[in-house]
Structure formats: C-alpha cells, structure tokens
Amino acid sequence: MILHVDMDAFYASVEERDQPALRGKAVIVGGPTANRGVVSAANYEARKFGVHSAMPMATATRLCPQAVVLPVRMAHYAEASRKIREIFERFTPLVEPLSLDEAFLDVRGSQGLFGSSLDIGRRIKHEIRTELELVASVGVAPNKFLAKIASDLEKPDGLVVVDPERVTEFLDPLPVGRIWGVGKVSGHELERRGIHTIGQLRAWPRDELERTFGQAGEHYWKLAHGIDDRAVVPDRQAKSISNETTFAQDIRDPDALRAWTLSLCDQVAWRLRQSELKGRTVELKVRFHDFRTIARSTTLPAPTDVTQEVRDAALELLARLPGPLAPVRLLGVGVTNFSQSRQQRLPFEDETERQKQHRLDTTLDEIKERFGKAAVSRGANRKKKS
Questions:
Q1: How confident is the model at residue 356 (pLDDT cuts 50, 70, 90)?
Q2: Are strands 68-70 and 27-33 parallel, antiparallel or unpaired?
Q3: Is the predicted pLDDT of residue 306 greater than 60, yes or no?
Q4: Of 40 and 346, more confident
Q5: Read out DSSP for 83-117?
Q6: What is 2-8+76-166's CATH number, 3.30.70.270, 1.10.510.10, 3.30.360.10, 3.30.420.40?
Q7: Measuring CA to CA, which of 191, 216, 248, 334 is 20 to 30 A from 353?
Q8: Which one is predicted more confidently, 377 or 138?
Q9: Of 88, 86, 153, whose CA–CA distance to 120 is shortest?
C-alpha cells in the first residue's frame, strides 16, 4: 500500500504553532513582490472567506479584512519539513517528497515491523502531532493516484483508506475533475457530453476517449479505472528533483508567477542539498488554463545545489516565455542532469560568487538544523546588473 501524507495548511499551521494566540483566527501567509503581495498559504479560517494561495494580497485582505497577515519564512518551513521527513523515514526508506508539505511513502515492506498500512498512517499522524504540534491528512491506497485523492477527502486531520477490492466504488461518485489532467477546458468538454463523475467517465469506451482527447484519453481511462503503476522514487534515486503547484484558480499576474517561481526554487535547492545532489539543468514547467503545457530548460556551466543559481536560471526561463501569458494553472521548477563530479570549476570571479552563495546556503541550513524557530530566510531575488 502507498501512503500520501499532506500537511494541513502547512505554512499557516507552523505560524499558529509558534504563536498560539493565532489559533481560531484567520491567518494568511504571503510575501511582497514588486510592491505587491501574493498569498502563499491561508489557514482554514481564512479559506472560509474565499482566500486561497496565489491570490493577490489586496484581494485576500478585502475578502477577509480581519485576517492576520504574516511574511513567508521559507527556511523555517523547510526545517519543519526536514523533521517531518525524519518521521517518515522511521517507517520506510521509500519516501518521495512532492514539496515541503507532502510526500508519498511506500510501506509495503514495513508492515511486518509496524503493522498494517492503516496502523502506519495512524502512527505517522500521531508522531507529527505530538512531536511537532502539526496536523497531517493521510490517504492509504494501492497506488499514488488513489492515495492522493484519499488524503484530500476529509481534510483537515483526515485518514482515508481505499480498499483494493473496492476501488471503483470509491472512485465512481467523485467529480470528474479529481482525475489528474482534467483541466477547465477538458472538464467542460466532458460535462458537455454528460460526464460529471468518474463513474460516468469509466463507462465510456477507451477508444472513444482516445478519439476525443488523444493521448490524454488513455490517461483518463486508466485513472478512471484506478490504474496507476508509478513507483515511489526517493530523491536519491530520482533522475530529477522538482516541485510544482497547481493553483486553486488560474493566475496570470507576473508578480505572482515570479513569487511562486522563487518559492519553488528555494524548495528544490533545499532538497538537492538534503540529498547531497547537484544538477546542471534547470527546468521550468508552465501549464495553462487550456492544459497546454510549456517546458523550458537551461544548462548551467557546472552542477549546482546553490539556491541563487537555481533562482537565476528559473527566472530567466520565466522571462523568456512569450507574452502576454494566458492564465496559468500549474507552475513547476526542477533540476536534473545530476553529476557525481565535484571537481568542475567556474571562472575565478564566478567561482568566488558561487562559494559565497554556497556558504550562505550552508549557513542557513545549519541555522535551521540547530534553531528550528529562528526566523531566517532569503529575501526576494537580487537584480542583475545591466
């Protein structure tokens, strides 16, 4: 069985833990970018007023004027994420992080030691709550797709198990939008044909889905039948390390896209250092409202795990996209082309700057390890000299 563990309102929950007086209040976490603010996270109290991630801060505070607005402390959340991963690794070495606040775990080889997959899910939730004072929702299922759906069904503090013998019964009543890849355009097309639930989608012939939606039709058919053969792949075994986010509502604001790109870069670089990996190629993935996807990449002079270098490369890729951009549904940053060589050198001036940046990253990482509650983080990306 596969577990998907998803922390509930992660950034905001960390802030509530550190400042108990915030509990019961609407809390919004966001950072300024180009004299504007973008919501990075909102707790459930704020969500009741329609606040969601990637929303302009001006809109969020208009919807929920009583909210407490706090700055993003990415280094602090990364430290909490490291402690959460330590808990995961008590139960299995097969942990595939998706971001700071969610991961897949393959626990099939651990049940002889720790009990059933349900028992393991309960223990992970308990240890996160008692040791870190945070709340996780867990989905337990035969594969990744089902586990991720399950973890989201009873948030917050959910624990949902999908019986391998009752997969179609679990899926059939769910809205068709739960299928990975069904966006606004394809969702409208399905609904126009009378398909509103996964059960109705599953009843469609496979060849008809493929004729209508092309390659995506086969993908829809498999997921509607609960078929997902992807393995859980830890960072050290992966060919790339990436983070991506699907927005609650499509966004086209350049400031918001830039802010999210920086956040994703910080998380990816931190995971590289945690896994003792360096990569030469930085990738940017943008999926638009119509599910059209653009992927761009750039190869660096030498392998890196330096946050600033990943940021610079990703922002350059973002700036190269032809504008004006259509509304964006998903944004992702990744690093690949890993190298075991530690001997590659840059020209002297570049190497000196890299060493300075690497010392900064290392110092921040050490502070996070020693002082989990230290408010230390990088600021906005520096401007390049013209």
A1: low
A2: parallel
A3: yes
A4: 40
A5: HHHHHHHHH-S-EEEEETTEEEEE-TTTHHHH--H
A6: 3.30.70.270
A7: 334
A8: 138
A9: 88
**Euclidean distance between CA atoms 145 and 232, whole angstroms:** 11
Residue 144's pLDDT is 97
Enzyme catalytic residues: 102
Tell whether the torsion through CA atoms of 298, 301, 303 and 304 is positive or negative: negative
pTM beyond 0.70: the answer is: yes
Three-class SS state of 300: strand
Q: Determine contact, residues 101/81, Cβ cutoff 8 Å.
A: yes
What pLDDT, on the 0 to 100 scale, is given for residue 362? 60
pLDDT at 61 over 50: yes
DSSP 8-state symbol, 56: B
Residues facing 3 on adjacent strands:
105, 140
Strand 328-338 and strand 279-288: the pairing is: antiparallel
DSSP line for 195-217: --BHHHHHTS-HHHHHHHHTHHH
The mean pLDDT value for 152-179 works out to: 95
What local confidence, expressed as pLDDT, does residue 259 receive? 86
Phi, psi for residue 333 in degrees, rounded to 5: -130, 140
Query: In whole angstroms, what is the distance from residue 335 CA to residue 249 CA?
Result: 26
Split at pLDDT 50, 70, 90, the class of 74 is confident
**Which segments of the chain belong to CATH 3.30.1490.100?**
235-370
**CATH code for the part of the protein at 168-224:** 1.10.150.20
Q: Which residues contact 257 (CB under 8 A, 6 or more apart)?
A: 251, 318, 325, 328, 331
Rounded average pLDDT over 92-102? 93
Residue 3 and residue 104 in contact, taking contact as beta carbons nearer than 8 Å: yes
Q: How far apart are the first and last CA of the chain?
A: 54
Q: What is the DSSP letter of 21?
A: G
Residues 6+ apart with CB under 8 A from 249: 52, 54, 55
Does domain 10-74 bear CATH number 2.30.30.240?
A: no
Distance CA 230, CA 6 (A): 19
